[in-house]
């Protein structure tokens, strides 16, 4: 597990799996659709969906209306 502290201040460290960290490293700061992220990451959509959901639940990534994602 890897500690992710960069986006979270004044709270406990967030522990990410190596897969979550790898995806986070590839995510741009601007909003991207799930389709754009599939092309960018080359991950199968089901795997990408699982990872994004975990990152959203950990509050490291934001899900915006229209299935857009942003760091």
Structure report:
By secondary structure, the protein is of the alpha+beta class. It is 42% helix and 20% strand. It contains 3 helices and 5 strands, in the order E-E-H-E-H-H-E-E. A hairpin with a 3-residue loop joins strand 4 (62-64) and strand 5 (68-70). Helix 1 (18-26) crosses helix 3. It starts with a strand and ends with a strand. The mean pLDDT is 87.
Tag the structure with descriptive keywords.
71 residues; alpha+beta; three-stranded antiparallel beta sheet; two-stranded antiparallel sheet; 3 helices; 5 strands; globular
User: What is the 3D shape?
Assistant: globular
Q: Helices and strands: which structural class?
A: alpha+beta
What kind of sheet is the major sheet? 3 strands, antiparallel
Structure summary, number of beta strands: 5
- How would you state the average pLDDT, rounded? 87
Q: First CA to last CA: what distance?
A: 19 Å
Tell me briefly what this model is:
Helices cover 42% and strands 20% of the residues. It has three helices and five strands.
Architecture blueprint of SSEs:
Elements: E1 2-4, E2 14-16, H1 18-26, E3 32-33, H2 34-41, H3 45-57, E4 62-64, E5 68-70
Antiparallel strand pairs: 1-2, 3-5, 4-5
Helix pairs in contact: 1-3
């Amino acid at each position: 597990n890897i500690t992710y502290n960069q986006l979270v201040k004044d709270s406990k460290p967030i522990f990410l799996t190596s897969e979550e960290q790898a995806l986070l490293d590839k995510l741009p700061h601007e909003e991207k659709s799930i389709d754009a992220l599939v092309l960018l990451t080359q991950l199968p959509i089901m795997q990408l969906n699982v990872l994004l959901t975990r990152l959203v639940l950990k509050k490291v990534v934001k899900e915006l209306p229209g299935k857009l994602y942003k760091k």
